[in-house]
Design a protein that fits this description.
Layout (H helix, E strand, L loop, with lengths): L1 H21 L14 E6 L2 E17 L4 E5 L4 E6 L13 E2 L4 E5 L2 H41 L14 H40 L2 E3 L4 E3 L9 E2 L4 E6 L3 E8 L12 E5 L11 E7 L10 E8 L10 E18 L11 E12 L5 E18 L4 E8 L6 E2 L5 E5 L9 E5 L1
Length: 417
């Protein structure tokens, strides 16, 4: 009895539910309206492009255009910024090669020079005396040879004995030997005097090159040791930008490539300085694996200062007309990059009677060339179908620049120019 009652209740509930459902009409079936992905497309353009490779580096003087004044001898400073001719100098002034900047106390050196010169004069007199001695010896030898002719024998009772004649010859040889010794001493004294005179010049600290005098690092009365730095001199009429290039960039660089300088703060219509690439390192740096590159610029107006950080753009590909597409058309999360093009473009009218263009998406691989980051365009060398690996002519295609992410081959597109 219990089971039959349960079955009756269950049947009543089912009838109630069915009657509530059957009393109304069924909801209409939901129909999916076909949707198009709305994208923005552009056609490729032919533009004049050149490839520029950007390098970052520091401004440095040319190797032979930076010098340092140092002390070659130990001495006390007696004057600074005087050229020895009554003309005052100042820091930041152009100085010529050899111009005196600092004067050391040279009194002892001058005394040594005077002493050496006096010794040289004494030896000059000694040389004169030996010359006179030689002349006297020649006269004496000539007199004795006249008194004893060569064919005279000892048995004929000559006026002069053979011994006297031999002594005269030896006296002449002695005079000539002393003359040579005096001449050697004379040369040594002159060389010593010249050396001391050269050393005397070391007490005048001169500019090693022509250039701008830097800050003076010494004061009057200071005693300098040998090699003590005094001031730097730099000539920046031409300047090098020392850059570091990674190995993958090196094949695009070559000597004498034109380059332009981009520096923060350059405003107005002032043209960017133009230079050339003058140095490519043959050997990479051991700690980084990068290569040193130098780009040289004229700097007559001193627009660049040493040790400043600047950016250099080297022209690695000359300017010529190239087929280009916007950078926004590239999907560069893979190599080679992917582009989405609109294929099978059709013109249709929507429900409002407005004409619209539709197409199908097609994914292609893009082989790229020169890139212009200022105009945000890139050279398109060729297109390749990733499935058939065949080349595709890009000239008549439309490239998706907005709304292309996530599209697959064959997706319906609604084009917006």
């Amino acid at each position: 009895m219990l089971h039959s009652r349960i079955r009756i209740v269950f049947a009543v509930v089912l009838c109630t539910l069915s009657s509530s459902g059957c009393g109304g009409s069924l909801p209409p079936a939901v129909t999916e309206e076909h949707q198009h992905a709305q994208v923005k497309v552009v056609a490729p353009q032919v533009l004049a492009l050149e490839e520029r490779t950007e390098l970052v580096g520091g401004a440095v003087p040319l190797p032979n255009q930076a010098g340092r004044i140092t002390s070659l001898v130990e001495g006390r400073i007696v004057s600074i910024l005087e050229d020895g001719k009554g003309k005052r100098l100042h820091e930041g002034q152009w100085v010529d090669h050899g111009q005196v900047v600092v004067q050391l106390d040279d009194r002892i050196a001058k005394a040594n020079v005077e002493k050496a010169q006096a010794l040289a004069e004494e030896l000059d007199e000694l040389k004169t005396q030996t010359d006179l001695t030689e002349q006297l010896a020649l006269l004496e030898l000539g007199r004795l040879e006249k008194l004893r002719p060569p064919d005279t024998s000892d048995g004929q009772l000559p006026l002069v004995s053979r011994i006297e004649l031999d002594k005269a010859r030896l006296a002449l040889q002695d005079a000539r030997s002393k003359q040579k010794g005096a001449l050697a001493k004379q040369r040594a004294a002159r060389a010593e005097a010249q050396g001391l005179q050269t050393q005397l010049e070391y007490f005048k600290l001169r500019a090693p090159i022509s250039g701008i005098l830097g800050s003076i690092q010494v004061v009057p009365g200071q005693t300098l040791a040998v090699g003590a730095p005094v001031a730097d001199i730099i000539n920046l009429q031409d300047i090098d930008i020392l850059c570091v290039a990674p190995p993958h960039m090196l094949p695009r660089l070559a000597l004498q490539q034109p380059a332009s300088l981009r520096r923060a703060g350059t405003v107005g219509n002032n043209p960017a300085p133009q230079g050339n690439l003058v140095f490519l390192a043959e050997q990479a740096q051991a700690d980084t694996g990068n290569f040193f590159v130098k780009v040289r610029f004229p700097n007559r107006e001193l627009r660049l200062r040493a040790n400043t950080v600047v950016r250099v753009e080297v022209v690695t590909q000359p300017e010529k007309k190239r087929l280009t597409i916007p950078e926004a058309a590239l999907q560069e999360d893979q190599d080679p990059p992917i582009v989405i093009v609109a294929a099978d473009v059709k013109s249709e009218k929507d429900s409002a009677g407005k004409e619209e263009k539709t197409a199908k998406a097609r994914k292609l691989q893009a082989i790229l060339g020169v890139r212009d980051r200022n105009r945000h365009v890139v050279e398109l060398l060729r297109l390749i179908d990733p499935e058939s690996h065949e080349a595709v002519d890009p000239h008549d295609l439309l490239f998706v620049i907005e709304g292309g992410h996530g599209l697959r081959n064959g997706d319906e597109l609604k084009l917006e120019s």
